[in-house]
Predict the structure.
Amino acid sequence: MTALPQPPKVLVIGGGWAGLAAAITATQQGAQVSLWDMAPTLGGRAKSFNTPEGPNRDNGQHVLIGAYTECLRLLRLVGLAPEQVLLRTPLDLRFGSGEGLRLPDTQRGFGAAVLRGLAPWLPAQWPSQLPLAVGLWRSGQGPSQLAWRWQDRWGLMTTSRRWQSQAWQCPAHQSVANLCTGLPPRIVHDLIEPLCLSALNTPLHRASGAVFLRVLQEALMGPLGASDLLIPKVPLSALWPEAAQAWLRRHGAQVQSPRRAMALHFVDSAWQVSSTAGTDSFDHIILACPPQEAARLLPQGIHPTWLNQVRALRFEAIATVYVQVEGVPLGPHWLPRPLVALRTNDQAPAQFALDRGQLGGPAGELALVVSACPTMDRERLTQAVLAQAQQLLKAQGGARQGPHPAPRLRPLQTLVEKRATFACTPALQRPGMAIGPGLWACGDYVEGPFPATLEGAVRSGVAAAQQAHAARRTSSLGQDPLTQLSQV
Ligand SMILES: Cc1cc2nc3c(=O)[nH]c(=O)nc-3n(C[C@H](O)[C@H](O)[C@H](O)COP(=O)(O)OP(=O)(O)OC[C@H]3O[C@@H](n4cnc5c(N)ncnc54)[C@H](O)[C@@H]3O)c2cc1C
């Protein structure tokens, strides 16, 4: 009787969204998977923690969109129903006073049913362009000084036609600011800037035009619903990492946290990994930790180009200021919608306010998000954002009448993630996935079409596990990777 071949031993280092996606994919492919994370809880930058006040709070407010197809697939795979954990709303970037872009609902209602029914017979781009046209028409309604003028809307239409005729591509060196030449300033401030900051977390003049166009194409020209906002209704850890961890354990993977990988060595045709809990040996390693940590772990002499690309990455911060509103709201909630865009300037840095009370969180808790957060003293940042929240609530309440006094704001917590994402700059050469034989990298920074997002992280995790699987078939393990790499 011949012995069955042992399944390959795969170690995933890092249990953020990329590492979890890699571990799940490798497990599905029949590998014997271990996942280590140095933190006690999995989820990396997208997880929640307990607060002294009791409820869980996210380590930064996150928003997904309908085009995050891999995130949605993996949510379902581990047994979650997206509609139960995410609030789906049509793309709505209106400010507190109601002006701005709001696309119609393409999932529910009579209009959506008609559009979906007609979609197969319409010219290819129409189903995605019709909602945009309706959104543009609506943005011209409302108080005349706030509504977009017809010149603004015409400017946006002609520019988006131009981007479309370029197949949503542009030269790699162009910034988003370059792309906007000729667009009415109103459209740049009210639409392009918030979109760019929320998707690329990089200011317009430093943000990659090519990646921005790619995001627009995926969201606005994708299937119906691709541009919808999907806002978590549960703490981030419960949104996916906890269920992903449970799935891995159910399917025989070993999940260990906290366990920090300390160094990698290639010895006797296998990777030896030393860690805070001893040394183990694996056939394949998927590095799903942040880029500097991945670079630190690599054996000396391996893939200098990869290391240089990691060293060239620059980072942008994101701050989330959580505040509690005290008082009596005029309506059922403090904000008119779960997400409201904010006007920004040097003294008013937050771009969005989210009403956590409408998202399964405590009533009256707001999360204010500062993407591409400037370097600022934390206290000054909190005060600036509180002033914005106060302004927003004042505008909502108008001249409050009756027995209710004006609401008071109490700061709860200001979280500043200094290395929230890599700076998505023009012509950036991102590190690739393959580092050496049996050695792969994944994460939101790894080369790919997306900026640093949950979807980018998850897609790269899935792709790394698939590449590792494909390489096993033509495996050349047994040869020292340093020898192989010297031939690269
Ligand atoms: C405040 C904030 C807001 C954001 N908002 C959004 C948003 O609205 N929408 C969106 O799509 N994206 C958003 N992002 C980006 C998103 O969170 C990231 O793109 C994504 O979480 C990256 O996942 P990752 O797995 O690549 O990396 P990480 O989450 O950084 O995971 C890396 C993991 O590696 C572990 N690790 C490190 N070193 C070791 C070691 N030596 N051994 C073992 N483990 C190790 C770490 O503990 C960590 O768990 C936001 C990010 C932040 C910070």
Residues 13-19, 36-39, 44-46, 60, 62-64, 260-261, 288-290, 293, 318, 320, 417, 420-421, 443-444, 452-455, 457 surround flavin-adenine dinucleotide (CB under 6 Å). The longest helix spans residues 378-397. Confidence is low (pLDDT under 50) at residues 476-488.
